[in-house]
Amino acid sequence: MWRAGLKWMFLIIGTTIGAGYASGRELWQFFGHESGLAILLFAVFFSISCFVIMKISFQRKSTDYLPVLRDIVGNKLTGIYDVMIFLYLFTTTVVMLAGSGATGQAFNVSYWWGVLVIAAALILLFVKDISGLLSMNQFILPLLLSGLIYILLLFTFDQKLSLFSHWHEQRNWTAAFPFTALNILPLIAVLGAIGNKVRSKKEIWIASLGSGVILGVISYIYNNSLIQIADELLLYEIPLFAILKEYPFEMLVFMSILLWFAIFTTAAAGILGIVTRLQNHFTIPLWLLVLLTLIVMVPLTTVGFSTLITYIYPIYGLLNLYVLSRLLLYPIWNKLDKRV
């Protein structure tokens, strides 16, 4: 039970901690100053949303996101949100591919080499179907989370930062809503694909609470660190590198590798959501669907990494607020839908 719960927890975290999050760009876009309460609310909303999605997925024994989506938004809006989820997964996976290229550029490696390496790795990952993704997450995510927390706490102690000095300033609390909403659609897509593999509600509790607490703690410490270097962030495509600039080069290399793996896990989750949905229409091997999808995506990565996040993420965050409200109020909505 615990092992299975942790497996789903790492899948959730791997879906969320991608290029935008792990680099610090996404956190800074939504939070920044006066956001402690916003991050706390995000952790609560995120856990509730994960629980509801997984519970529906478990009840439906789903293998793709469509049955889960239908339960959440209702029959009338399912078609609209089906298209939205597909486009969201597509565009954010392009962001991950672009993020891999940007990470390579930081070490004077060709942008296109960075993109092609992650594309090849994604194809190889899905040769073993979904089991390859789950195995990878269980190995990579503990290492990634430990490394990120270590760097952030090291920076916090080295700079003698206070973690709770700004709790009387919380005017940005509303940011919790679009930020949580931003991360909901990929979770519906990914968790909707594993409903037939979940065995008990205890697994759901472990996965949803664990992921919310871990992401909440990391988000708070990360945001607190970024506030201290706010004036320098305009100079960096990847804010994490601004935190690392005073540390040895070896640490920069280590965190860059972990950053790449964060990008990879989210790209893999996005691809999973796309290809499990496409399997309803195409009877070809999963890895071949991945290959064809990536062939379409790669040319679109020419838009700058930070540009993609700056414009795409807030728009989707606002569009997804309805989905978030349905998840948070699911018991009420569900009863009303059954009466109608």
Automatic annotation (TrEMBL):
Signal peptide: none annotated. Keywords: Membrane, Transmembrane, Transmembrane helix. The chain crosses the membrane at residues 38-58, 79-98, 110-127, 139-157, 177-195, 204-222, 251-274, 286-305, 311-329. InterPro entries: YkvI-like. PANTHER family: CONSERVED MEMBRANE PROTEIN, MEMBRANE PROTEIN. This is Membrane protein YkvI.
